[in-house]
């Protein structure tokens, strides 16, 4: 009897242990994470962010089924530095990658290696452009440098460079899906799909050439900005009118012998490209004989048409990834993020490119679908930063966030019913690259919900203050106006706190001199 009781008790204990263990495994079942990271894709070009003239149905779908962050800010608005911030969760002055076209210090800790150590498979496909491959990637298949739009080269783990026929956004998506297909299904995965689109010179997929030719895009209200009261803005070299080139940027009478993308095409591709840009667009340009403002406005139209046509393939390929996850039963356990490495000017202030702490380049698109955690249709207004992505991903993967990471996990903001948490009320920005390529003077500053205070240095030494509620276009520098003295003093105190908190010694010295 005692023996039977012992056996039964033992069986019960075993069953209990088994049940508890399975439950623990289920709760510990960590989500896959697909992070789609584009290049220079302006939030103004996305319908979920309010553009009424173009549709980005797949980015919109992520937002509709998950969360849209209205106020995501990049802490140094250019390509390589933004990627370095993503990888490290730290400001440029800490991760060392302040300027484009340098070599990323790959001895430093990056979050994919922490995911890897925690049992994730990790991969990066497409644009990386850091001059080195960071640690912690089980697989990478990347574009050397900036890469090409047509018939691009790729270099992957353990192989030499190879040229792939086709359009870069399609190929990056193909390789990404191929990698998901062949992964070890016993482990969760983290994959970055690093898209080249919509970087200059905005070369669309051949099937999308002319996609927006029937739309006459209105110029932004700040298109004719005269930069009054803003010294650094007066000295920049990034206007559509003067800086943007007809041949390289807008493909008017392309130098076909030298054009780096055209020379890679096969005869069929060349014919389609030539028919559109030479026989249609260049011909139209010749016939119109435009000068002055009419020419600037024509350039603006062509810029938007090429840029948005390039973005069309980007959105379509995001749709391919979402469809793939649906068809393979992975949508429920895979987080999908879409973000751009920084914002971009779509003619605001008369500009293209990025860099300035003004809204269009400071702010970036960021949407995230996280089934079971994020309520569909969530809109988040609190400030998110590019350095928050690393800790957020570590947090959702249940990996301890290292104390040295400067960003914060956004998970508390994402979790339903957790809206009233204490959160940052301001953010700190520091840009460095000068003078080339666009002659934007280095600067740092603070943005709050209502104000932005910027300190330019390195030759255009000056302060700027904007009331973002009254002057969202940032045309009116109200620094130096007596009635704003208290506001300036308070903002400078907070700016100093941020500089100390983030350990930006260079900015601290500039502030105190
Ligand atoms: Ca970029």
Description:
This protein is of the alpha/beta class. A hairpin with a 5-residue loop joins β16 (451-456) and β17 (462-467). Strands 7-6-5-4-8-1-9-11-2-12 form a ten-stranded mixed beta sheet, with helices on both faces. A four-stranded antiparallel beta sheet has the order 14-15-16-17, covered by helices on one side. A three-stranded mixed beta sheet has the order 10-3-13. α6 (168-182) runs parallel beside α9. The protein is built from 14 helices and 17 strands. Mean pLDDT is 94; it is low at 4-8 and 10-27. It has a domain at 32-204 and 300-422: Alkaline Phosphatase, subunit A (3-Layer(aba) Sandwich), CATH 3.40.720. Residues 39-40, 79, 341-342 line the site of calcium ion.
Helices and strands, with pairings:
Blueprint: H1 2-27, E1 32-38, H2 57-65, E2 67-69, E3 72-73, H3 79-88, H4 92-95, H5 111-117, E4 121-126, E5 139-142, E6 153-156, E7 162-163, H6 168-182, E8 189-194, H7 231-235, H8 267-288, H9 292-327, E9 334-340, H10 359-362, E10 363-364, E11 366-369, E12 378-380, E13 384-385, H11 389-396, H12 411-414, E14 426-431, E15 443-448, E16 451-456, E17 462-467, H13 485-501, H14 505-512
Parallel strand pairs: 1-8, 1-9, 2-12, 3-13, 4-5, 4-8
Antiparallel strand pairs: 2-11, 3-10, 5-6, 6-7, 9-11, 14-15, 15-16, 16-17
Helix pairs in contact: 6-9
């Amino acid at each position: 009897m005692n023996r039977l009781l012992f056996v039964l008790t033992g069986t019960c204990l075993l069953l209990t242990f088994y049940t508890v263990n399975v439950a623990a495994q289920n709760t510990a079942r960590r989500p896959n994470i697909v992070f789609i990271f584009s290049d220079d894709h302006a939030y103004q070009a996305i319908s979920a962010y309010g553009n009424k003239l173009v549709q980005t149905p797949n980015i919109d779908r992520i937002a509709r089924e998950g969360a849209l962050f209205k106020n995501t800010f990049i802490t140094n608005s250019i390509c390589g530095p933004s990627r370095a911030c993503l990888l490290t969760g730290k400001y440029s002055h800490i991760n060392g990658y302040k300027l484009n076209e340098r070599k990323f210090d790959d001895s430093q800790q990056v979050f994919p290696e922490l995911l890897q150590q925690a049992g994730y498979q990790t991969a990066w496909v497409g644009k990386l452009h850091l001059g080195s491959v960071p640690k912690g990637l089980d697989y990478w298949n990347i574009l050397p440098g900036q890469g090409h739009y047509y018939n691009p080269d790729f270099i992957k783990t353990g192989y030499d460079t190879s040229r792939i026929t086709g359009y870069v956004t399609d190929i990056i998506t193909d390789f990404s899906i191929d990698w998901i297909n062949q992964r070890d299904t016993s482990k969760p995965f983290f994959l970055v799909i690093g898209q080249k689109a919509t970087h200059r010179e905005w070369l669309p997929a051949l099937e999308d050439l002319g996609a927006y030719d029937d739309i006459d895009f209105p110029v932004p209200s700040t298109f004719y900005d005269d930069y009054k009261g803003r010294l650094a803005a007066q000295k920049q070299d990034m206007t559509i009118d003067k800086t943007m080139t007809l041949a390289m940027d807008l493909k008017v009478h392309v130098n076909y012998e030298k054009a780096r993308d055209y020379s890679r095409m096969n005869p069929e591709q060349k014919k389609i490209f030539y028919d559109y840009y030479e026989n249609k667009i260049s011909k139209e340009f010749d016939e119109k004989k435009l000068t002055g403002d009419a020419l600037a406005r024509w350039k603006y139209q062509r810029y938007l048409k090429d840029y948005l046509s390039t973005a069309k393939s980007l959105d379509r390929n995001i749709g391919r990834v979402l469809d793939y996850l649906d068809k393979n039963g992975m949508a429920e356990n895979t987080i999908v993020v879409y973000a751009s490495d920084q914002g971009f000017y779509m003619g605001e202030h008369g500009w293209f490119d990025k860099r300035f702490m003004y809204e269009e380049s400071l702010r970036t698109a960021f949407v995230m679908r996280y089934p079971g955690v994020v309520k569909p249709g969530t809109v988040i207004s609190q400030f998110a930063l590019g350095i928050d992505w690393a800790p957020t991903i570590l947090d959702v993967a249940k990996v301890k966030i290292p104390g040295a990471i400067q960003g914060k996990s956004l998970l508390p903001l994402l979790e339903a019913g957790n809206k009233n948490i204490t959160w940052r009320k301001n953010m700190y920005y520091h840009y460095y690259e000068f003078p080339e390529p666009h002659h934007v003077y280095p600067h740092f500053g603070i943005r709050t919900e209502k104000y932005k205070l910027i300190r330019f240095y390195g030759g255009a030494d000056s302060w700027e203050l904007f009331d973002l509620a009254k002057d969202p276009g940032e045309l009116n520098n109200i620094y130096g106006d007596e009635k704003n003295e208290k506001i300036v003093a308070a903002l400078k105190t907070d700016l100093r706190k941020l500089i100390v908190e983030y350990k930006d010694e260079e900015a601290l010295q500039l502030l105190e001199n």
